[in-house]
Amino acid sequence: MINKSKVASEQQSRVHKFRLLKNLIQVGDHISVTGIATRTNTGQLSLEARELPELLSPSMEQVPEKLTDPKTKMQERHVDMLVNRDVVDILRLRSEIMKQIRDHFHSKRFLEFQTPILAENAGGAVARPFVTRATEFRGKDLALRIAPELWLKRLVVGGVDKVFEMGPAFRNEGVDATHNPEFTMCEFYSAYTNLPDLIKETEELIYTLAKHSQELISTQLTTLPSIDLSKFTRPFKQVEFIPALEEAIGVRFPKLTAEDGALPELLAVLKLSGVEIPGEVPTSLPKLLDRLAATYIEPMSFTEPIFITNHPACMSPLAKSFLCPKTYQLVSARAELFIGGRELANMYEEENNPEEQQRKLAVHRSLVNKPDGTVGFAEQPALDTDAEATSEPIEEDEWEASPLDQSYVKALDYGLPPTGGWGCGVERLVMLFSGANRISDCLSFGTLRNVVGLSADEKANEK
């Protein structure tokens, strides 16, 4: 509030300057005003100026009243943030969620570490890595990490019982509504922790984040939709992978081992029963099982959060496995949390037998070296219909699974205690609690497609 009648000395001259300033300043300018704090008759906090405002930084572009075109919103993200408050609210919620995650693990005496992002092996999950070279190691390929998993488990071997990391991870694969090649991953590893412990920890963290996010939405981030906390009532439903899938499609599965005969045998059973497989038929058993789960089990999570548990062992080479007393199938001590058709977290008891780990990694590598255009456990498009177009798949002969990380297997020789591990994509959490439909809304400057497109537009303008 500026009252020109109360501006100090040289009244007439200053009134003239005030009028000039009024005609000059526009939306987007940064100004400085000196005065005393006061309240209006309606009680609104205001500032009674005692000096003329000082223009600190002018806005050379007119800030639009509205900005709705999706392409323009991402190309000029800074303008989008100025015009649309919900854009900033989502990013503020992201910051708060990351802080809350850190506070949660610190309160449980976890230690936070930063592990290598660039190394010889991408590490952890099965996905296509980004490969590069360093001048220090001529002729040797290096990779951006897919996950920090193997590094963090080395720390547990080294005697740090509770570790976690939250940082960037990279997967050289498609872009869609829920996937971006660069994303933020949170993983923790806790010694003497089993699968029920991991499930309980996940339920606690998800409810804590939901409650904290709703408090922020109701008081500060008011452009975001409210969160129905009743949907996060604990305990969450648990669904066993094989029994649920057999019931959904009405067939009895053959032995789901990693041997070459299991895939054609399962395909024959499905064909005989008239079960349709969406898209092209996968060329590996883990990918086929993942596709079936995405079609027949994961949609259950649209009505309530579910844990899918006890995956076939061939899908989880880094997890401990056991013979299921219900199905007599070899399964992993693993669970995935799905909410609204999207995977939120993946967790399992870690394989700590070095010989068994060596065998599992070798077998799994032989399977994924028969790629079907996409690689990984969660590369199918999201189950929502508001999906962005995906990029073209890389040709089959352009990718081969990373070599076995023998240094990790060697580290297990020193003894990894019984350990539970957990991983979650931060952007998925932000989407869940902000109501965003696209991962691009939860990234400061959108997906890789937006970032690369921005650079291309700049070069075109230069020409």
From TrEMBL:
PROSITE patterns: AA_TRNA_LIGASE_II (PS50862). One of its GO terms (biological process) is mitochondrial lysyl-tRNA aminoacylation. One of its GO terms (molecular function) is ATP binding. Pfam families: tRNA-synt_2. The keyword Cell inner membrane does not apply. InterPro entries: Aa-tRNA-synt_II (IPR004364), aa-tRNA-synth_II (IPR006195), aa-tRNA-synth_II/BPL/LPL (IPR045864), Lys-tRNA-synth_II_C (IPR018149), NA-bd_OB-fold (IPR012340). Keywords: Aminoacyl-tRNA synthetase, ATP-binding, Ligase, Nucleotide-binding. Residues 91-441 form the Aminoacyl-transfer RNA synthetases class-II family profile domain. Signal peptide: none annotated. GO terms for cellular component: mitochondrion. This is Lysine-tRNA ligase, mitochondrial. It comes from Trichoderma asperellum.
